[in-house]
Amino acid sequence: MAFPSAAPSALRIRSLAKSFEGPRRRVVLADLDLDLPAGEYVAVMGESGIGKSTLLNLIAGLERPDAGVIEIDGVDIGNLDDDALTRLRGERIGFVFQAFHVLPYLSVFRNVELPLRISRVAEAAARPKTLEMLEAVGLAKRADSMPSELSGGELQRVAIARALVHRPRLVLADEPTGNLDPATARQVLDLLRAQIKGNGAAGVLVTHSEAAAETTDKIYVLSDGLRLR
């Protein structure tokens, strides 16, 4: 299927609910709503185990909700099969995680280029996009380096470049500075914000850190729904 090229909201959530079965059924999310236009960057905070990472997984289609609607660029992801979901993630979503997930056997350049090649962008077109993204995150001179040669802050910049190289409409970041010292974390947070804003993307940052949350436009608290702080 062809995805719409534009929509009023990069992300629209209505009446989202998710629970997990076990000896006792645990409700994680209930009746959650959110509208996130392109260009807006928000933080989601809350206690451990409240469902913040689950929310990101649902938005990305990595888990299925019990009820509710999630639309990305006007596409109801609940109507997509696994192949279409994978394609939508590759075209419209960028991920940044606490653990970097940089592939150790690929150079910095090849790590950042990877989403473009997975999306079957020709090498001749992928190369300048990758180099431009490496320049934007200050790693142009490390393009041929291997991940083992980089610091934690540099690895997270590689992860940001990889998440944004295909110009996604939506960026999802899950505790992206949890493994970094405060000074490096601030540099990475400023870079993440600048790149999200510069690309006109919408961004959702899940974090426990007040300092991280304060780099976003709005802060939501997840507790009995999602409320603006």
Unreliable spans: none
| Top-tier CATH class | Alpha Beta
For the CA atoms, what is the radius of gyration?
A: 17 Å
- Tally of contiguous helical segments: 7
Q: What is the third-level CATH name, the topology?
A: Rossmann fold
Helix content: 25-40%
Overview of the molecule:
The chain has 229 residues and is of the alpha/beta class. It has a single domain (40-65, 81-228), classed as Rossmann fold, CATH 3.40.50. The protein is built from seven helices and ten strands. It has helices at residues 52-59, 82-92, 108-118, 123-136, 152-164, 182-198, 210-213; strands at 11-20, 26-36, 41-45, 67-72, 75-76, 93-97, 170-174, 202-206, 218-222, 226-228. It has a six-stranded mixed β-sheet with strand order 6-7-8-3-9-10. Strand 1 (11-20) and strand 2 (26-36) form a beta hairpin. The protein is globular, with a radius of gyration of 17 Å. The model has no long low-confidence stretch (mean pLDDT 90).
